[in-house]
Amino acid sequence: MMLTSPLPIPGVTTDPSTPNSVTCVSWNIHRGRGGDGRVDAARVLDVLKSEVWQSGADALFLQEADDEAPPHRGVLDIDRIEADTGLRYTQLGVDHRSTLESHGFLGVVAFLHPRWHVQSVRLVDLPGHCPRGAVIIDAAQGDRALRFCATHLSLSQGLRIAQMRTLGQHFRRHDPRQTIICGDLNEWRPWGGAALSRKVLMDRFTGPTAPTFPVRQPVLPLDRVLTNAPGRVTDLRVLDGPGIRAASDHRPIYGRISLGA
Q1: Mean pLDDT throughout 61-77?
Q2: Distance between CA atoms of residues 124 and 182, nearest Å
Q3: CA-CA distance, 148 to 151, in Å (whole number)?
Q4: Burial level of 200, CB count in 10 A (0-12/13-18/19+)?
Q5: Is the whole-model pTM more than 0.85?
Q6: Number of helices and strands (H, E) in the chain?
Q7: Could you tell me which of 59, 60, 32 has the C-alpha nearest to residue 46?
Q8: Which of 162, 210, 223, 244 places its Cα 20 to 30 Å from the Cα of 238?
Q9: Is the Cβ–Cβ distance between 252 and 52 less than 8 Å?
Q10: In terms of C-beta density within 10 A (0-12 exposed, 13-18 middle, 19 or more buried), how is residue 15 classed?
Q11: Residue 247 pLDDT greater than 70, yes or no
């Protein structure tokens, strides 16, 4: 299903003790470089506010939000994103970022709604010649515990397999809870390929797909929202608008995930 305009979508229940779904927005911002070749971080922020952000959403995950070269400086205004979305930046600690000047970990930046209590933030280096990583947030709302994994995987299928195996092993080393994987997974096969298989992840993660790349006429479903049982991705939408088409090479996605018992 494609959105032709930025429609507001309701968030989860307002009762903090009984959330039954969560909503996430994810966008690879391409370090602010638009289709016109111009690097314009201010444009990204304007488009994030006007066309990407969905009112009431629980989480925002950005990829390629830091400079590629050391010291990997952040390219966006974190305070403005918090003000525009009502979310809270989760990586204030320098141990939750690549460097003191970064906003994220290898370009991955995560925001959560304050109704979610952040219990821990962990960084996972993923194997490969091009640095990739994941930001893993354990959070709770009332008596509901959830794990968010925001990541950006490699272009190579072989490396994606190794990277997802690394994430699966990391999940196994921590308490079992419903986990949401969200970001630019660089997997073009709608069925997911070996990297997203149960054999590699050691658990079954599923979610619908829709094309997000390239931005003007998307044909590849590179950006995804996945979850394991007892949850389910009940809605996935690709966001579109004139600003989105100008600001990056990917379209953003919005996902709604049901929370199991």
Answers
A1: 95
A2: 14
A3: 10
A4: buried
A5: yes
A6: 5, 12
A7: 32
A8: 162
A9: yes
A10: exposed
A11: yes
